[in-house]
Amino acid sequence: MRTSPPRTEPSDRIASQVARFALFTAAGVLVAGLGLWTLSIEPLASRVLDAAVLMLVATPAARMVTSLAESARERDWFLVTTTATVLLVLLAGVVSAFLAG
Amino acid sequence: MWAVVAVASAGAVAGLAGALLGLGGGVFLVPFLVMALDLPFPVARAVSLCTIVATSSTVGAARAATRLVNVRLAMMLQVATAAGGVTGGWTSRLASERTLTLLFATLMLAIAAVMFARLDKRNVVVDERVSPGRWGGAIRDPELGRAVVYRLRRMPVALGVAFVGGNVSSLLGVGGGVLIVPALNAWCGIPLRVAAATSALMMGVTASAALPLYWTHGEVRSHLAAAAVLGVLLGSRIGVSLVSAVRIRVLKILMIAVLLAVSALMFSRS
């Protein structure tokens, strides 16, 4: 059982930074939208809030796209395959939702 | 206005517990929104899924949490979780809601029992020269004050649980973490903190896959989602900073309490 030292985790630094940026941006727009909603400034409040929620929902996808690029750069084909598969499932979810809607 | 404040406060509690236990918080938020605020279940589910994305993004963005996430394992299980999420609609046609609720409640009781039996057992090898294998990893254990290694056991079980977790998330809007975290810890050899962080990262993707459908059906109420998300962001930031400070035994007891409470709620609903 005693063999090589622990394998290092794949680099996820840029994906984490992208997630942080997207999250803080969405949170800022959410605060602005909620402020407008509290002051009853419609329809601007609803539009800003809708945009903020959409930004938030897109955050995991943005992280995964970055992660896909990082994995491809590091030639980690297992991560490239799994990340691409999950992104395709996400895309299918969006397309089928808008087709059904 | 008071509803927005109540939702934000509930979101903060859900975010704190969600980040600590990797549950995404929906398991607390959905019953609160439905029972206390009398919101329709589809609206509560959509708000809850938004908060799961927020918790997941907080975990994905926090430096402390990303050290605990097993990215390779997350991506592997994510394929099963996403497939489970996509087939959620089909599952609801194969069995009645009552049957599914009973199955889910029974499974959570079983996991609570297994976790209780393993309350003082740890899934780590203290010798850091031991190979973690393809799916394991090395983390710094704050209780031991040194690096430890863990190895994944029973990958088919992990994949099966991830599939069911994704399915449940899509059906009930509670996030699959309530199933995946204890199962990975009890059956697959993954330390609780790693299971929680890895599951939280995965659940955001599953929730964001389900949300477009609810959005196009007009079930996402943006002002409630915004209030809940801001509450969750605050709560989960606190949770992420606390996760290394809270003792594993306390986390496990909290998890067992949540499992028993949700199981009892589901038995009563069925």
Number of helices of chain B: 12
Query: What pair of chains forms the biggest interface?
Result: A-B, 55 and 56 residues
Label the overall shape of chain B.
Answer: globular
Rg of chain A (CA only): 19 Å
Q: How is the main sheet of chain B built?
A: 2 strands, antiparallel
Strand content bin of chain B: under 5%
Helicity of chain B, in percent?
over 70%
Oligomer: heterodimer
The neighbouring-strand order within the major sheet of chain B is: 1-2
Separation of the first and last Cα atoms of chain B: 33 Å
Largest pleated sheet of chain A: none
Mean pLDDT of chain A: 82
Q: Which structural category fits the helices and strands of chain A? A: mainly alpha
Radius of gyration of chain B: 17 Å
Question: Which key features would you list for this structure?
Answer:
heterodimer; A: mainly alpha; 79% helix; B: mainly alpha; two-stranded antiparallel sheet; 12 helices; globular
Description of the molecule:
The complex is a heterodimer of chains A (101) and B (270). Chain A is 79% helix and 0% strand. The longest helix of chain A is centred in the middle third of the chain and has 30 residues, at 44-73. Chain A is flat and about 50 Å long. Chain A has three helices and no strands. Chain B is mainly alpha-helical and 270 residues long. Chain B has helices at 2-21, 26-35, 41-61, 63-66, 71-86, 88-94, 97-117, 155-172, 177-187, 192-216, 222-242, 248-269, and strands at 137-141, 146-150. The two termini of chain B are 33 Å apart. Chains A and B meet through helix 1, helix 2 and helix 3 of A and helix 3, helix 5, helix 10 and helix 11 of B.
